Amino acid sequence: MTEIITNWEPRHAALFGQHTLQLQHRANASGLFTDAALARLIERSPRAAYHVNTMDNRAHNPRSRREGEIQGLSGKDALDAVRTGNLWINIQRPGETDPTYQELLDGLYAEFEDRVPGLKTYKQKMTILISSPKVTVYYHCDVPGQTLWQVRGEKRVYVYPNTGPFLTQQAMEKIVLNEAHETGMPYEPWFDNYAQAIDLKPGEMLHWPLNSPHRVVNADCLNVSFTTEHWTDELRNTYAVNFANGMLRKTLGLKKLSRATSGPAFLGKLALAGAVKAAGLQKKREMAFKIDFAVDPRVPGGFRDIAAYGLRK
Q1: CB distance 38 to 75 below 8 Å
Q2: Cβ distance 206 to 200 under 8 Å?
Q3: What's the rounded Cα separation, in Å, for the pair 135 and 77?
Q4: Tell me, what DSSP letter sits at residue 97?
Q5: How many C-alpha atoms does 130 have within 13 Å on its Cβ side?
Q6: How far is residue 131's CA from residue 153's CA, in Å, rounded to a whole number?
Q7: Residue 119 CA to chain centroid, in angstroms?
């Protein structure tokens, strides 16, 4: 597949990373996202490579999110449970299980770098999302650069400004310091009045400015999509400033902190962030999960409760 994005225009290079971009792609023609291909991937993916979740779709309640397991099921059965239930499966780094997905990821970023002058990305990552009809993804933001690629089904994506009150400087610092989860950000229904509401159909992708909060509502159909994330030197510098500002705010009580990514103050913050990282002083994100349901296509919702147990990833 020589061209993945099919309607790129020269102006998109100037808009990339600065404004929301909705473009067309042909990744859904790769054969990697059919039922058969996804079933094989589910069966071959190790436990550490996937999450399966459910949550309350009736209200914005991040505490309702639950973690489950896929045990003793074929990939087809798991897909059937998602198709008729209230679930989503996230398969992380699928290229480590099947190199063909890595080839797609490499091709996508090679295309971006070829078309956006000066763009050099690293630490690229793909996550495949298989989700039930009407599933919602709560209001959150991501730390790296992020793109959403719709393959099957339809969804509405709400993209919010990456400034206050939708994303405060202090909230971003806590996320970067691993003191808060991305989904724990405050959300008010009136935020929607200031969001871009974008309907995504198969063969469309959405790229938004760094750290823009967003939430997703699936249409009444099975959805298959994937996200890609990346870093650049510019994104790393923004991360370092947020990290250092968070440390200075927490330890010294400083309040008016610049977010500039140039000049002597920035270089000092870059050094501070690097020193804290090198010394291992950053609070590590807790990677312990309580597993309390099993995917089961035979029951309503596509899952059944099980005795809870812990899993560390």
Answers
A1: yes
A2: yes
A3: 19
A4: T
A5: 26
A6: 10
A7: 21
Give residue-wise pLDDT tens across range 1-24: 578 999 999 999 999 999 999 999
Buried/exposed code over 32-70 (b: 16+ C-beta within 10 A; e: otherwise): bbeeebbbebbeebeeebbebbbbeeeebebeeebbbbb
Length of the chain as a residue count? 313
Mean pLDDT of the chain: 92
CA max distance for the chain: 62
Q: Are 270 and 244 in contact (CB under 8 A)?
A: yes
Give the sheet arrangement for strand 66-69, strand by strand. 21-24, 204-207, 145-152, 223-231, 122-131, 88-92, 50-54, 66-69, 288-295, 303-312
Three-class HEC string of 209-223: CCCCCEEEEECCCCE
Residue 296's Cβ-count burial label (10 Å; 0-12, 13-18, 19+) is buried
What is the DSSP track for 263-283? SHHHHHHHHHHHHHHHHT-SP
Work out the average pLDDT over 69-89: 96
